Amino acid sequence: xxxFLLPLGCQMNQSDTERVKTVLQGMGxxxxxxxxxxxxxxxxxxxxxxxxxxxxYSRIKKWNETKDNRNRITFVSGCVLPADRERFLKxxxxxxxxxxxxxxxxxxxxxxxxIPVNSQQSTVNSQQVxxxxxxxxxxxxxxxxxxxxxxxxxxFWVIEPDHISEFEAFIPIQNGCNKFCTYxxxxxxxxxxxxxxxxxxxxxxxxxVQKDYKVITLLGQNVxxxxxxxxxxxxxxxxxxxxxxxxxxxxxxxxxxxxxxxxPRDMSDEVIEVISQYxxxxxxxxxxxxxxxxxxLQRMNRKHTLDDxxxxxxxxxxxxxxxxxxxxxxxxxxxxxxxxxxxxRKAMEEFKYNMAYIAQYSVRPGAVAxxxxxxxxxxxxxxxxxILTDELMKHSLVYNxxxxxxxxKVIVTGFDRNKTYLTGYTEGKIVIRFKSNDKSLIGKIVKxxxxxxxxxxxxxxxxxx
Length: 465
Known about the structure:
With about 475 residues, the protein is of the alpha/beta class. Helix content is about 30%, strand content about 20%. The chain is built from 13 helices and 20 strands. It has helices at about 10-25, 50-65, 80-90, 105-110, 155, 185-190, 200-210, 235-250, 270-275, 295-300, 305-320, 340-350, 380-400; strands at about 1-5, 30, 40-45, 75-80, 95, 120-125, 125-130, 170, 175, 195, 215-220, 255-260, 285, 325-330, 355-360, 405-415, 420-425, 430-435, 445-455, 455-465. The strands form six sheets. It has a five-stranded parallel beta sheet, sandwiched between helices. A five-stranded mixed beta barrel has the order 16-17-18-20-19. It is globular, with a radius of gyration of 23 Å. It starts with a strand and ends with a strand. Mean pLDDT is about 90; it is low at about 120-145.
C-alpha cells in the first residue's frame, strides 16, 4: 500500500511534509513518486499565492476522476485560507490543519481504506497519541468555530520528521504570524504566532548533529519573534541561538545553522552579536526589505522604516563583515509610483545584496490588499523586476569576483548538470561548483579554491589536504 505527497510552497511546507511522511509510514504505507499507484494521495497546500491554489484544484480534479473504480483517499493540509478550506471540503476526503496531523490515522480508518498496520492508537516519537475523531469533519473547519491553525502545535512538533536529505535538515521553532502585512495571507493560513519549546528544539538539533547533519535551518514565519508569545516562560531568539552556539563549541563536529525568515521589526542587535560569537551560526542573514520607500512600507504595514532597516544592515556589516545578506523585495505593489520604485532601486544599490528574491506583486486572496486595486500594469511590474535584477547582478558579481583566489568551505550537495562537476554552496550560501565526480563527497564540507565568478555563482578547484 503506497502514498503520494505533493508539497507546494515554502520551506515550512517542505518541513511539514517530512512529518506527514512519518505518520503515513508509521501506518505501514510506503512512498511512491507515481501517483497512479497510490492509495493515499495528499497535498501540502499553499494559499499564499493563487498559482499554488490553482495547482491544488488541477490535481484534485485529476485524482477524483480515478476514484470511481478504486479505493483511494485524498487529503489536503498545509497553508490553507478559510475560504479555500470550505471549498476543499467538497473536493477532498479529508481536510485538516497540521496541528491535527496526529489524528490522521483515525481519519483514514473511518473511510474504510485497508491499513497495513491496524491499531487503534499511533505511536509517534516514542509517545502515544490517542486519537478520537468522529465524522463529520466539517465542524473542525467552520468559520464559526474560529479554528486557530497554530493551536496545540506541540502535538505536531512531537512527531519525528522523516528527513528528505541525509545532511540538510529543517527544525521548526515557531508557527504563525502576528504581523499582518497587507500583501500577505500567512496570518490567515497559519494562525497566530506560537513558539515551540526550546528544550525540544535543542534536543532535535543535538540529535541531528550527532547523526552528522551538516546544515540545519531553523524555520518560522518570524523566527526572531521566537519566545515573545511566552514571555517569562521561554527564552528569546538571541538566547536560543546562544545555546545552539555554545553546544556547537562543545562538540567536535562541524555544522552550520541558518534561520529563516526574520522580520526587521524584531531583529535585535543582540541576535547579530550572538551570531558573530559562535562558529556554528552561519554567517548568512536573510533580511526581507520588501520596499525601500517609507510610504510603501507603511502601506504594506511593515511597521519599520528604511532607517530602522539601515541600522540592522550597518550592525551586521560592523559585527560580521564576512556575512552575506539576502533579501525579499516586491515590485508593483498597489499604487507603487516611479519615485517609490526608484527608492527601492536605491536601497538595492546601497545594501549591495548577495541575493534578492524579487517578486512581481500578485494579489494574495485573504490578505488586506486583496480588496485594493491591483493598478500597476503587468508590463510595468516586469520592467521594474528586470531593473532590480540587473541591480542585484551588478553587486553580486563584484562580491563574487572578490572571492577569486580565496579558499572557501563548501557543503557539497550533489552533481552539477555537467556530471563531471560537483556543486554545493559556501557558508554564505554562494552557489559553487568544482571539477570532481567523487560521489562520496556529497554531504561533506570540503575546501575549494575559487578560480572564477559569475553574478550568482562561483567556480573553483577542490583543495586536498
